[in-house]
Amino acid sequence: MNLSIHSTFLPQTDPEASLAFYRDVLGFEVRNDVAYGGMRWITVGPVGQPGTSIVLTPPAITPGLTDDERRAITEMMAKGTYAMIILASQDLDGTFERIQATGAEVIQEPTAQPYGVRDCAFRDPAGNHVRINEVR
Question: Contact, 44 vs 22, CB < 8 A?
Answer without folding.
Answer: yes
